[in-house]
Amino acid sequence: MKKFGLTLVAALAFSASVLANGVNDSTTVAKWDGSINKAKLSKYLKLTVTQKEEVADICDYFQEQMKTANRSTKNADQKVRNAVYGNLKLMKETLDEKQYAKYVRLMALTLNNKGINVEK
């Protein structure tokens, strides 16, 4: 559990530090619709059959939430933050500890690359 906590903190600290340095300018970054390649994710995380179904549903739900957040004119940042943290919460319930740690690292990297800051 300590490793997971440290991994999460490190991933979020890394993305926050890169964003704090101004590498990503929100005016030039296209909005991410939340699409996730489920086949590659399944292979990367080595999901069981049951997990594949649940993760596919979570990914679809996350994509819907991100699209809604991106269309929003009010509180878009808060809606993106809620979508990301909601996704992480659902994944934590579905994945085992190792899989979840890998997923958090992957999500932090993806958010960083897309220029999305979920820090308050």
Automatic annotation (TrEMBL):
Keywords: Signal. This is DUF3347 domain-containing protein. It comes from Phocaeicola salanitronis (strain DSM 18170 / JCM 13657 / CCUG 60908 / BL78) (Bacteroides salanitronis). Residues 1-20 form the signal peptide.
